[in-house]
Structure formats: C-alpha cells, structure tokens
From TrEMBL:
This is Damage-control phosphatase ARMT1-like metal-binding domain-containing protein. It comes from the Eukaryota. Pfam families: ARMT1-like_dom. Residues 49-360 form the Damage-control phosphatase ARMT1-like metal-binding domain. Its cofactor is Mn(2+); Ni(2+). One of its GO terms (molecular function) is hydrolase activity. InterPro entries: ARMT-1-like_metal-bd_sf, ARMT1-like_metal-bd, At2g17340, At2g17340_3_helix_bundle, Type_II_PanK. The keyword Manganese applies. The keyword Metal-binding applies. It comes from Riccia fluitans. Keywords: Hydrolase, Manganese, Metal-binding, Nickel.
Length: 368
C-alpha cells in the first residue's frame, strides 16, 4: 500500500543560503569518511534488530490476516536478513542506514507479507479508554487558574502521554506487563531540569503573545494524542490560536493516522451539532493528512494539503521521539518551533547526554 498523495517540501523549513535541512539528528556517517560505518550506525542496526521479536509477536496476533503466524515469521526472517545485509554492506537495501531507512525497510517487510496495521486492535482499545478519560483530564487542567502553571501542567501531560509507544521495545514490554495510568505517568516523569529544557522560555512567549496558527505533528494513539496533545491543543484554541493537527497517512507502529484522528476529534466534541470541545470553540481545529507513513519524519516530503494549511502558521510543534528527537531536533524553521518528546532509547540518551526516559522540550523563537 502506497501513500495516497504526491509529496512536496514543508513550506516553513528555513530557506537560507547557510542552512540545508537534514532530517536525521544523530550522525550515522561523517562527511570526512562517508563510506565508513560509525559505531552509532552499527548500534542502531542492533536497536532495530532487537525490536523484531515484539513486532513478530504482535503480527502473529493479527486476526485480520490469514496465516498470520507464518507471515509474521516470514517478516522476521526477511527484515533480519535486510539488517544483516546492511551491516555487511551499508549501501545495500537503499543504505547507508539511518532512522528513516531502517523504519522504511521494516514497514516494507510488513506490507510485503500482507500486514497493513498490526497494532490496529491495541490502538482502538487504547483510544477508547483514553476518550473516556478525556473529560476528567481536561477538568483537572481547567481548575488551574494560574495560566503559566496550567501551561506547564499541559506540557507534562504531553510527556506523560508520549510514554505510550509500542515502537520502543522496552516500553512495549512494560506496556504488556502492566500499563500505568495517565496520572501515574505524570507523577513519574523525571525531575527538571530535563536534558533539553526550554519550558520556561516557551511559557514566557505564550504568556506574552499567543500565536495565530499552530501546526502540530502528532505521534502515538491512545493517551498520547487524546490525553496529551488534545488538551494542549484545546488550550491553544481557547487562547485564540488556530490549530492544525498533522497525522500520518498510513499506519506505522501505534502512531495515530489521519482517519483515526478525525474519528477521535468527532468523539470528544460536545455533541448535538456543537463545534466545541468541553465548552471551547473548536471551529478553528483542523485535522490534516501529513502524507507521512513512518514513525520518523522527513519534512522534505509532506502532503500538498498540509503544505497549504501550514503556509501562514507562526508556530510548528513536532511531538514524539521519532519526529522531534531522532529526526528534526536540529531542524530550523521560518517561525517559532517547539520540539517535545521523551527519550525512550538508551542510545538517544547517550547522544544527548541525558537519562533514559528524560524529557526534551526545545523552543526556538524567531524574531522578525
């Protein structure tokens, strides 16, 4: 299954002579020796290799696919062989490898053997649970009268929601053993200062001046989108900001898709034809297909619909480890930008000089 639209560059990427957009954060290859595999490259091949058993196990349980167990075994064998080939010859299979190449090969292997959305069942279950909790989570935030404190509370909610990530093998195992409640996740965040911590600068800008339009590249299903991002987006709406939520075109791990997000937004609205979300006007909330089909993000290729909807935005938000840390942490934009996500791989923590499950909130203000 292929993406449904042609791809164009994201219009808000900085377009200066001295800047060239590169999506991947961690340098797998150095310009001084582009044919030499680095320790980081070899380590990341092993990270993806370790994820194979969890993907295989989920695929085996896909009740929509005939002979799911056989197909899952075929996927594991095929993807493992591709990783072996990349390790032996990094220029095989579209390499040299980086997070974009490695995730795309995994998706190709799944689709080649017949799997389209192996996490569909768990996504639906978690979305249903989270929608039921949405009113109480929003009510808790609304009771915080100090706006600065409310903003920080909502940001912590984004981090807490982002813990739900079945693409990180350690978290997938923990989720299977015992899923923490959203409140527990909020309380268990690592203390500040985080490895990258621009929360105070972000709060100051928001208190000083609201943005006219924000584009948010969203991440996972369940608590991430429903209890983390949507309460945050509702606060932007309440303060007069138009909000564009950009979601994946095709399924990838437990990331929310465009069609799934449209359904969730309709569920959280107040009903009876009201275009409100728990009393806040939602007429300026838009859900757009990003054109992406991976858990990482290359902003040189987005859908024309998103490009059009984003042209006049003055805030870009990238959420999640894949979109905001493993890719695009150093991306520069023509407008203000916020990169926010949790560090869920030890290799990323080591690169940033932080801790596993550390938080990243990087805010860059553009002065015109």
């Amino acid at each position: 299954m292929e993406r449904t639209s042609p791809q164009v560059p994201f219009p808000l990427i900085k377009a200066w002579v001295d800047y060239e957009y590169r999506p991947c954060t961690i340098p797998y290859r150095f310009p001084s020796d582009p044919r030499q595999a680095t320790p980081a490259e070899l380590a990341w091949i092993q990270v993806f290799r370790k994820s194979i058993p969890s993907f295989k196990k989920v695929a085996e349980q896909d009740e929509t696919i005939v002979d799911a167990a056989k197909r899952a075994a075929k996927f594991a064998e095929r993807y493992g062989k591709m990783l072996d080939e990349l390790q032996a010859d990094p220029f095989s299979n579209g390499g040299p490898p980086d997070p974009i190449v490695l995730t795309r090969l995994r998706e190709i292997c799944l689709r080649e053997v017949g799997f389209h959305d192996i996490y569909k069942k768990v996504k639906d279950e978690e979305n249903t649970k989270s929608v039921a909790l949405f009113p109480s989570v929003v009510s808790t935030a609304d009771k915080i009268e100090n706006i600065g404190e409310r903003i920080e509370h909502l940001v912590r909610g984004v981090f807490a929601g982002n813990i739900f990530d079945l693409g990180a093998s350690q978290l997938a195992e923990k989720f299977e053993e015992k899923a923490c409640s959203f409140e527990e996740s909020c309380q268990q965040l690592l203390p500040r200062p985080w490895v990258i911590d621009d929360l105070d600068q972000f709060k100051q800008k928001w208190l000083r001046k609201s943005w006219k339009k924000a584009v948010i590249f969203v991440d996972n299903s369940g608590a991430d989108i429903v209890l983390g991002i949507l309460p945050f987006a509702r606060e932007l709406l309440r303060r007069g900001t138009k909000v564009v939520l950009a979601a994946n075109d095709l399924p990838s791990i437990n990331d929310i898709t465009y069609d799934e997000l449209k359904d969730i937004v309709s569920q959280i609205k107040d009903g009876d034809g009201k275009d409100t979300i728990l009393g806040v006007d939602a007429s300026q909330l838009f859900v757009v297909n990003s054109g992406n089909d991976l858990p990482v993000l290359d902003l040189s290729e987005v859908s024309p619909e998103l490009a059009y909807a984003s042209e006049d935005a003055d805030l870009v938000i990238l959420e999640g480890m894949g979109r905001a840390i493993e890719t695009n942490l150093y991306a520069q934009f023509k407008c203000d930008s916020l990169k926010i996500g949790m560090v869920k791989h030890q290799e990323v923590a080591d690169f940033l000089g932080g801790r596993l499950y550390d938080c990243v909130i990087r805010f860059t203000e553009v002065i015109h």
